[in-house]
């Protein structure tokens, strides 16, 4: 016979289970404001990689009382001109040598030039909670801003087909997402269509991953375990980088990709990142400032606003500036 106290306890557990089930079904029935399966929206034949955040206001839905951005504006140009020389002999021609990070433009008009360009690397730095990772989340359209517009090559990203937009971007984050499958499958996940062994191995070599993969008894057939638990932090990052290389995105997003690694692993991973950054507009969020000192533009964020912007040398020349102060707070950053 069940006592009164036991009956009361069972009733309490049953009520908790019912409440939990109700919450779960609410989540399952909830429709996302951003439908990743939608086929609506336009695409572009050629993506240059110019990015503009225009007067963005944003709060996370889970934290409606915390204002992340208010009138946030940031321009990320795709390229910079290295030199000019006059040309009168060629018809208009554009050749993009992605592997060499160069863009050549030739025009047959007197006084017009042959220009050589490098694609830009823009680094976002600042204290925790300043809004750095939110920039990447908004660019990938994990969220939409409450007001303002985000443009890619002059087109508002809300008007672009979402799956196509995300195909143009490769994301390498602090904690890479690996699936409980083989190394081969985790790299191949970066591409929708069929992938050859040569393509997978090529991406792994470019990511400094081929050597450690080949040293494993099962090579590319090695299971990475749940969330990549069979691999070290540096190995997981290099698998994620190989996936991004295979995807061949026009825009590369690096969200503190080396911040959780030891010095030796960071060096190997940073070398791989330097390779994949070639020929792409790169937006990088960095905790270790030593990894971004060569960036074309460094934007310093504080309380959701850009307080300084320029090269490492320019920002270090600002006495008492926000960037110089960050370096003082992180003595191991140089």
From TrEMBL:
Belongs to the ABC transporter superfamily. ABCB family. Multidrug resistance exporter (TC 3.A.1.201) subfamily. It is found in: Cell membrane. SMART domains: AAA. It comes from Aegilops tauschii subsp. strangulata. This is ABC transporter domain-containing protein. It is a multi-pass membrane protein. Pfam families: ABC_tran. Keywords: ATP-binding, Glycoprotein, Membrane, Nucleotide-binding, Repeat, Transmembrane, Transmembrane helix, Transport. GO terms for molecular function: ABC-type oligopeptide transporter activity; ATP binding; ATP hydrolysis activity.
């Amino acid at each position: 016979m069940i006592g009164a106290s036991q009956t009361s306890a069972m009733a309490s557990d049953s009520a908790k289970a019912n409440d939990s089930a109700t919450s779960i079904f609410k989540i399952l029935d909830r429709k996302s404001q951003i439908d990743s399966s939608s086929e609506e929206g336009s695409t572009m034949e050629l993506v240059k990689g110019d990015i503009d955040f225009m007067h963005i206001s944003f709060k996370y839905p889970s934290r409606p009382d915390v204002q992340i951005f208010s009138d946030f504006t940031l321009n990320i140009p795709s390229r910079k001109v290295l030199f000019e020389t006059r040309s009168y002999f060629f018809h208009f021609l554009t050749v993009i040598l992605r592997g060499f990070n160069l863009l050549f433009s030739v025009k047959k008009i007197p006084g017009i030039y042959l220009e050589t360009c490098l694609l830009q690397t823009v680094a976002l730095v600042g204290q925790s909670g300043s809004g750095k990772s939110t920039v990447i989340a908004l660019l990938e359209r994990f969220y939409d801003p409450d007001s303002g517009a985000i443009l890619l090559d002059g087109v508002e990203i809300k008007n672009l087909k979402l799956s196509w937009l995300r195909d143009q971007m490769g994301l390498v984050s602090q904690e890479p997402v690996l699936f409980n499958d083989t190394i081969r499958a985790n790299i191949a996940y970066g591409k929708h269509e069929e992938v050859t062994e040569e393509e997978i191995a090529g991406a792994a070599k470019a990511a400094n991953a081929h050597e450690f993969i080949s040293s494993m008894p099962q090579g590319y057939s090695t299971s990475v375990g749940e969330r990549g638990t069979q691999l070290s932090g540096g190995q997981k990052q290099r698998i994620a980088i190989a996936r991004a290389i295979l995807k061949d995105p026009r825009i590369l997003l690096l969200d503190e990709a080396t911040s959780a690694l030891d010095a030796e692993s960071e060096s190997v991973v940073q070398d791989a990142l330097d390779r994949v950054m070639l020929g792409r507009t790169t937006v990088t969020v960095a905790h270790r400032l030593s990894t971004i000192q060569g960036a074309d533009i460094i934007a310093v964020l504080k309380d959701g606003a850009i307080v300084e912007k320029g090269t490492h040398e320019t920002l270090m020349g600002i006495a008492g500036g926000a960037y110089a102060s960050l370096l003082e707070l992180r003595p191991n950053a140089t």
